[in-house]
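Reviewers asked in the last cycle whether our approach scales beyond single polypeptides. To address this, we selected a multi-component target totalling 654 residues and predicted its structure end to end. The input consisted of the following lines:
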Amino acid sequence: MKKVALAAALAAILCAAIGAADFCGYVETQAGWYWGSSEFVSPMYQVVEGGVSGKVGDAEAPKVQYLANVDLEYDPTSGAVANVASVKLGEAWIKIFKGPLDLSFGNQIVAWSISDGYWPSDVVNAWDYTLPVDPQKIPVPLGRIVLNGSNYSIDLVAQPFWTESILPDSRWMPPSESAVASLPHNSSLDAKPDFSWDSVGYGGHVKASFELLQGLDLGATFYRGRSSSPTGLALTYSSGYPSGYYYVFDRSTLVGADLTLSPGAGLLLKSEWGYTTLDDTDILSPEDGKASVEGVSGFEYTIGTAQIEGEYVLDWTKGAAEAFTHEAIGIFTWSIDDRTDVKLASDCEFSGKGGYMLCPQGSYTIADGLKASLEAYFFFGDKATTYGSYSSNDLATLSLKYSF
Amino acid sequence: MTRILVSLALVALAAQAVAAQSALSADQVMDKVFNAPKSKGTIETLSMVVTKNGQSLTRSITNWSSGDHVKGEVEKTISKFTAPADVKGSGFLTLKKVDGSTESMLWLPALGRVRRLGSGSSDQDQSFFGSDFTNRDINGFNQGDFTYKILALEGGLYTVEASPLKSVGYEKLVYYIDSSTWRYVKIEYFRAGKVAKTQTDEYEKIGDYYMPKRIVMASASKSTTELSFADYKIDQDLGNEIFTERFLKQ
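The resulting structure, written as structure tokens, was:
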């Protein structure tokens, strides 16, 4: 609530000082059902987002830019009355342009990853895993400096406050955690530090562009901070027996690199790799389970208003029972006309017993700013696999969104 | 007597002018069209209304553009959507190089990400944001990609047939060119021997330039797209800092 008040105050001060601002937002109603059980998908978001944004100075060379969004959410499926309606601060930042530098402060989203289906370099923001197969970034408080060169940029961030990701409910719990999940969760023991130097995150991304073929971008990433998603589970004991569990959020260090090449003929090639170590283990000789490599390489091919994307994902964890896992992601999108878009996404796990997901989506623009969307998720595979364990979670959602 | 002499002189001058006009070859006419003076750097707002089956969708865009392909310069364009609200803030950066290749980037504010786009020759034949225009219709054709033939000259209006030397998405084009401005006021786009689309153009003179004021593209399939231009700022010194990812994100 403090954050909302802060954002409102910031917006009010800016509007008063500047006298000109854009007000915009959206109203969205969404309903969803689990295919097998006709149970409603929860949370069933009914959202009103309102925001103010604007620039100070000339449109071509502004001195300052600002944005503040607030979400009011209502969930009729929530059992707990206190949680039925909530107010959340979305992106809320102020950016100052000084020569080649952009200085920004506030709740921000950082996008360093270049791929569409897997994001090894996007480690700054916490994630909302409410629907774990379609995670959304949560804006987090940051100080950020971007140096803009003629064909390069250096983006540095400092994250003073650790933010935890929103985890899915138990029906999405991976099979490896299901036994533990039956124990009571002791949230008071979660490693959720308030401000401490140990939890401050910092890092950066450097990008350089070259005139090779129809454009080449090379990037490098470094980030060090406390992981926003659990890096493990720990048990509590009573009389020698497990009596509960809590999540562990280790410090992590990421070193990554990425490449995007547009060779022409409608083709785009991408590759992105990240090496992560946990808990300050030695980077070169890490302990088992404390180091991992995540990589994604793929292509996009555009023909007409249709686009095909294929991505291969490799994940290696040192010392894990199954050290290497492999996935293939396929995305087909087609804008049929000025109103209708369809998309089919799939993710196939090749490792172990395999498993896969299919996600068909469609949207139709009814009128200016008014769009209806239908999407479904289907999961297949052995129960021991991630997608196989979701097989009773097949779902469909229908939403109507009006933007103003 | 003096009046008669003056009248005769005027008639002679007019006849000379028509003779001079009709003496122009098709290539000379098209030289005048393609080499018409262009604003060095232009800022404009554009409203696009697409109407199909009686239902309309509107998009508003602000464009910054500079460079002239004819002069061997890289043509640079930034387009930012200002309406409707669901696409407001998103934008494109396009660099059309002298060799004909195109470098494109898309800014998606909801994702906080600039996305490089793969571009190919087929992109040019695709619909411009679901409208009746293709990207090539919007970006303009290259003069050297056609052979030209004058079909008629009537009342100062040249009718010129353009037959493509390479694939441009159409069988042929027929331009109707106003010889007082050297701007085309209508283009018919042919496919399979029939007029597939008809474009009509209106201009307004701003400074030394005739700038598009309203362009309507009517398809044989009964859909139409109307582009209305406003708020022109011409001969702007748009430095390289405009055509960057940084400006795209602002």
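Residues 1-94 of chain A form one domain. We regard this as preliminary and will revisit it once experimental data from Aim 1 are available.
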